[in-house]
Amino acid sequence: MKLALIGCGRLGFSILQGLSRAGFLDVSVFDVDKSKVDKAKSLGFKPCQSSREAVEQAEAVILSVKPAVVEQACQEIRDCCIDKLLISTAAATTLSKLKSLMPQSYVVRVMPNIAVSQNSSITLLAHPPDAPEEVLEKAVNIFKLLGEVLVVDEEDLERATVISGSGPAYIAYFTEALVKAAVSIGLNEQLALKLSTLTLSGASKLLAEAGMSTREVIDAVATPGGLTAKALETLDSLKLKEGFTQAVLEAYKKLLSIRQ
Ligand SMILES: NC(=O)c1ccc[n+]([C@@H]2O[C@H](COP(=O)([O-])OP(=O)(O)OC[C@H]3O[C@@H](n4cnc5c(N)ncnc54)[C@H](OP(=O)(O)O)[C@@H]3O)[C@@H](O)[C@H]2O)c1
Q1: Share above pLDDT 70 across residues of the chain, in percent, rounded to a whole number
Q2: Which residue pairs, CB below 8 angstroms and at least 24 apart, start in 66-75?
Q3: Nearest to 29 by CA among 21, 17, 11, 41
Q4: H or E stretch covering 62
Q5: What 3-state class would DSSP assign to 88?
Q6: How far is CA 186 from the centre of its chain?
Q7: Which residues bind NADP(+) per the record (predicted)?
Q8: From CA 32, how far away is CA 46, in angstroms rounded?
Q9: 66 CA → ligand 1 middle, Å
Q10: 6 C-alpha vs ligand 1 centroid, how far in Å?
């Protein structure tokens, strides 16, 4: 299948990196910023001079531009995307908005995260109720090259935006905090980063692969009255969990306020 990518920014380029790792190079790429198209070319993808040129060569299109420019980007390709699949990565841009902009295309929404570059994204996919099965299969198969795919209703995709879409930044933020703490007690930064990231991937395996619950992991480490328990008690007294919930809520409120 031939693909087009419109918008080769932070997410778009990460998608290309993942597709390249999966050996899928049949993608025509356009971005208004020529230097980003050149970057895509250096990975072996086909550079295009316009979004129309990219779309005309493809059966399916990934639109990966900011929500504020979705409308303009759709206008540019509307009449050459007839009967083609258009997969939008844009946050807060509903299927009904996309359908109104692209009435003669099959529209689908996805919410991946930047771990697409490592083929380790969790991608949520939502579609209109009348989307043909073969169209959905195409969309799912593209994102399966980039990690795991879950087909969900649109409201869950919206919620997931501030969980798994934003998630890599939260995890990096947490890692930053752990590294800072490690350095403050005398570890050098390089070792602190290695300890933090490998601990993160080990803990993630316990939760995601070994099937341990979060409580089981905590209980397996934090002996009552011990050192980890002391650290966790301190985090609780600082209301870190509440702060985190508040942060996600604020992001979600913002998403709902810009939803189009
Ligand atoms: N970044 C993430 O982790 C992430 C995760 C999930 C979903 N998303 C969603 O994915 C979309 C892209 O996000 P991003 O972070 O990759 O944004 P980004 O870095 O700003 O990338 C968007 C790219 O599209 C270009 N562009 C603007 N108008 C265009 C047009 N008409 N035709 C072709 N290219 C155009 C932009 O160029 P200029 O910068 O020159 O305008 C930019 O290079 C957003 O809607 C976002 O909500 C992002």
Answers
A1: 100
A2: 66/9, 66/90, 67/91, 67/92, 67/93, 67/258, 67/260, 70/97, 70/98, 70/101, 70/260, 71/101, 73/6, 73/7, 74/98, 74/101, 74/102, 75/101
A3: 41
A4: strand 60-63
A5: strand
A6: 35
A7: 6-11
A8: 15
A9: 4
A10: 9
Which single residue is written with the structure tokens 């990231």?
197
Task: Provide residues with CB under 6 Å of ligand 1.
Answer: 6-12, 30-33, 36, 51, 64-67, 69, 72-73, 76, 89-91, 111-114, 165
Measured CA distances, 117 to 89, 112, 153, 166, 197 (Å): 15, 11, 25, 15, 17
pLDDT digits (tens, 9 = 90+) for 115-172: 999 999 999 999 999 999 999 999 999 999 999 999 999 999 999 999 999 999 999 9
Which phi and psi (to 5°) does residue 164 adopt?
A: -85, -25
Mean pLDDT score, 65-83: 97
Q: What mean pLDDT do residues 29-54 have?
A: 98
Q: Which of 196, 167, 197, 198 is nearest to 182 (CA)?
A: 196
Q: What is the enclosing helix (H) or strand (E) of 66?
A: none
Q: What is the CATH number of domain 3-159?
A: 3.40.50.720
Q: Where are the domains of the chain?
A: 3-159, 167-258
Ligand 1, atom 21: closest residue by C-alpha: 9
Q: DSSP state, 93? A: -
Residue with tokens 């003669």: 104
At the second CATH level, the architecture of 167-258 is: Orthogonal Bundle (1.10)
Helices 240-258, 227-237: crossing angle, 10 deg rounding: 50
**Amino acid occupying residue 30:** F
